[in-house]
Amino acid sequence: MVSANSSVAEAQSLLQLHYLVWIAAGYVTYALLYRALVYPRFFSPLRSVPGPSMGSPLFGQYFAIVKNETCIPQREWAKQYGPVVRWMGLVGKEYLVFLSPEALQQIMVKDWLVYPRPQIMRDILELVAGYGLLTITGDAHKQLRKAMNPACSIPNLMAQTEMYYEPIERLVEILNRQIKGEAAPEAGKVFQMFHWMEKVTLDIICETAFGYKNNCLHNPSNELVVAFDQMQKLQSGENMALLIAGISIPGVARALASDWLYRHRNLVGKIPTLRPLSLLIDSLHRIRTISREILRANTVVPDDRSTKKDIMSLMLHARKAELNANPISEAMSDMAMVDQVLTYLATGHEGPASGLSWTLWLLANDLESQRRLREEVTPIYAANPRPDYRTLKSLEWLDCVVNESLRVLPPIPQTFRVAEKTDYIEGVLVPKGTMINIPIRVINTWKHVWGEDAEEFHPARWLNLPKAYNPTFSQFSFITGPHGCFGKTMAVSEMKAVLASLITNFEFAPAYAGQVAHPAAALTMKPDDNMPLRVSRVKA
Ligand code: HEM
């Protein structure tokens, strides 16, 4: 009897569980359908903002975004619908694009605290660049940025410029030697220019930011280059989607950077879909190991009178000052310091390496601009092969070339912000939680400002700027405001030093007839074929 009763009770509770599962599944389906199909079509305050069709019910325009060249769909939409565009992401997630200076001023400058980087973006950035300026916001960000600002002061940059030349001269010497070794040296040699730009910029940032001699130019199996290369190969729309899906699960971002998962990465790699994650774990571990090494090599804290203002000295100094003021304060731990090293390693070389590769590509396809640049820089180098910061800054055509290249092919082609509260932008009611897509590449090539040839490379346009040009918002490659690029001035002066040395010594041409560039982007926009270019000695 007892057992018959308990069987009935068991059957009843199973039935209840069964109902609960059905109710939960029904609710999730309803919520998904409501979010993806009903709300954006019938209730969203953004439903009347112009933009492309809703796309697929679950994926919106997601595939148009990840399968096309970065920012090209947004550019087409802006041409068709104007400077405010709405597009749909996954499961009804609404994205807004604004191109006007007024809107960008509000989002990036005036109300920057209302529009922080979205959490998912910060999680991804934290994975590659650690917990630092890129991932924090508000007061913590203000404090860290204030401590670091002297690293990019003009006197500091003037002192740093001299340090660029050792790696640059190594690069020139390697290219020269390899061209000489060819059967017909006068015809030059094809080099994967992105690889070389990555190496020279890594050596420069290691030296100028941390006083660390990396010398990956002479060492093809250098751990840092191998790790960053491996990460670069993983940068595709599909892998990014996998990463975003993975990171959306709480705890996954932290796990990916953990030593435990590194030890078990081969197990992860056994599942074919997860193989890119196992490579990512490996790269992250290698980069963290070197960052720790860099920190260990920098244990001496500069005293108060020290004139050393490289990034590492400033960080050590800030930590010492904090501990002196309050010995029990939570000054940066060694782990937090490693994260700062990661931030500058990643940001300090990727942008300049991509920027330089794109500039060489554009010059290889515009021989007149290349010739004019050589004519400007050659006498400068003949007088002094290590021109200083002010000399580089004063070269007019060099400035035009760098500005124009960064405008047409910006190394960081887009970024995102999220509305933390409901607000109006350009008269559009933007509900809390709306994603703001800042398509830098589209802003930089907006015909309304730059005219009909906006998408073409014409350095001379910087000598006669259009009426609608706005110095802060028309070339937006470093964005602006409290989260604007920390290394802007350094990046530009570094690009100029590398470019001027290369153009004085070499001529650049496409590697083969009909060559086209293939920009591939996840975080930064790089040439997906490593940019092969034919390099030959400048004829006397
Ligand atoms: C051509 C080269 C470069 C370009 C185009 C570039 C562009 C950018 C952009 C667009 C951002 C904002 C990203 C966002 O908000 O989503 C940014 C942020 C940042 N960049 Fe650069 N960057 C370059 C070089 C550098 C260099 C050389 C350094 C370091 C020495 C650097 C350090 C940083 C840091 C630390 C941030 C975060 C700033 C903050 O939020 O306070 N960048 N960069």
Would you spell out the secondary-structure blueprint of this structure?
Elements: H1 2-43, H2 62-67, H3 72-81, E1 84-88, E2 94-98, H4 101-110, H5 119-129, H6 138-148, H7 154-180, E3 189-192, H8 193-210, H9 223-233, H10 237-247, H11 252-256, H12 259-263, H13 265-269, H14 275-296, H15 311-325, H16 334-364, H17 367-383, H18 389-394, H19 396-408, E4 415-418, E5 423-425, E6 428-430, E7 435-438, H20 440-444, H21 447-450, H22 488-505, E8 506-510, E9 519-521, E10 525-527, E11 532-537
Parallel strand pairs: 2-7
Antiparallel strand pairs: 1-2, 3-11, 4-7, 5-6, 8-11, 9-10
Helix pairs in contact: 7-8, 7-22, 8-16, 9-14, 14-16, 16-19, 16-22, 17-19, 17-22
Protoporphyrin IX containing FE is lined by residues 117, 133-134, 145, 343-344, 347-348, 351-352, 355, 410-412, 415, 477-479, 483, 485-487, 490-491.
How would you describe this structure in keywords?
540 residues, alpha+beta, Cytochrome p450, four-stranded mixed beta sheet, three-stranded antiparallel beta sheet, 22 helices, 56% helix
Tell me about this structure:
The N and C termini lie far apart (107 Å). This protein has helices spanning 2-43, 62-67, 72-81, 101-110, 119-129, 138-148, 154-180, 193-210, 223-233, 237-247, 252-256, 259-263, 265-269, 275-296, 311-325, 334-364, 367-383, 389-394, 396-408, 440-444, 447-450, 488-505, and strands at 84-88, 94-98, 189-192, 415-418, 423-425, 428-430, 435-438, 506-510, 519-521, 525-527, 532-537. The protein has a domain at 130-412 and 477-537: Cytochrome P450 (Cytochrome p450). It has 22 helices and 11 strands. The strands form 4 sheets. The chain has a 4-stranded mixed β-sheet. Strands 3-11-8 form a 3-stranded antiparallel β-sheet. The protein binds protoporphyrin IX containing FE.
